[in-house]
Specification:
This protein is mainly α. The protein is built from 5 helices and no strands. The protein is rod-shaped and about 110 Å long.
């Protein structure tokens, strides 16, 4: 009788060890999938960031060119003596003030604010005109 109980115990222990091994293997695959997904999101975010950086550089370059053009135009038009120096400085300052000097909240804070208000990641991406993967990445890191 004891022999039967020992055999049943060994059988149950074997099944338990097999299930534990199988679950550990499954958890490790899930972790690897999660890591791969995060890496893919990083790559997509980096690509979007590079595109945005290129667009920003082009925008700054065009603004710089227009500013240089304004400076050269004002310097060519103001070739008077000392009595016109104040007018020249005023025209440069007014040209500089006309340039786009505004500030906004960061994209990350806007995304998190909309996410906290209950918007989906796709709606946030459409509303802020940015990539869905960027929104997903920011939300994941915030959590």
């Amino acid at each position: 009788m004891t022999f039967i109980f020992i055999c049943i115990s060994l059988l149950l222990h074997s099944i338990a060890f097999f299930l534990i091994f199988h679950l550990i293997k499954r958890i490790n695959t899930f972790k690897q999938t999660n890591i791969d997904e995060i890496q893919k999101l990083f790559e997509q975010y980096l690509e979007a960031f590079k595109k945005e950086n290129d667009r920003l550089q082009e925008h700054i370059f065009s603004k710089n060119q227009s500013f240089q053009q304004i400076l050269t135009e004002t310097s060519h038009s103001n070739k008077y003596a000392d009595e016109n120096v104040d007018d020249h400085n005023y025209s440069i300052l007014s040209s500089v003030e006309d340039m786009d000097d505004s500030y906004e909240t960061s994209l990350q804070s806007q995304i998190l604010q909309l996410y906290d208000q209950g918007y989906s990641e796709e709606d946030i991406a459409k509303q802020l005109n940015c990539g869905k993967t960027e929104v997903e990445l920011i939300v994941k890191f915030h959590q």
